[in-house]
Prior knowledge:
Shape: globular
Order of helices and strands: HHHHHHHHH
Strand content: under 5%
Number of helices: 9
Radius of gyration: 18 Å
Number of strands: 0
Oligomer: single chain
Amino acid sequence: MGISLTSYVVFVAAVLVICITPGPDMLYILTHGISQGTRAGLLSAVGMAAGMACHTAAVALGVATLVQSSTVAYEVLRYAGAAYLLYLAWQSLRDSSGPDLDGSHEAVPLSRVFRRAAITNLLNPKIVLFYLAFLPQFVSTGAGRPGLQLLVLGLTFTVLGLLVDCLIALLSGQIGARLRKRPGSGSWLNRLAGIVFIGLAAKVAIA
């Protein structure tokens, strides 16, 4: 693949550090894992990974350079992401007045959980810019085929991120199972989710 073994090992170590650092994706997975259980958390993780795979393909194909070079494209994507997170916040706050998490109400379909995760990730332009800044540092310019090297590095990032996120999902599922045994937990969990999404929207829009 043109990447030296030493560079690849350093890359993997750096990615693991980045993946265990709390961020918007981790908060999203925790929120859904706690509120709807392990399956929802795992599907959130897979949805995030699907978004990362798309970012990887964009960077490898050079499409992401359009976002980097165009202020308008970046701003449009940034505010679209913030608007979508506010929409999720509104839905969570609306549901906080509904039934509790005792299994007596219909949960959010898992397909929608996956779709939301993928869209949330795709509408984060900072991931593209991070890829453009981080991945090329490990590309061997003398080995040729930089696009293929970027693809391998990006997919490695995606797989490692998925593994870490799945562990987070499993943990959040266990926490949620305990909370669901407590009366009134569903309402405040939905309120917490709404607050988290509002905070993430503000972070995306202002930062």
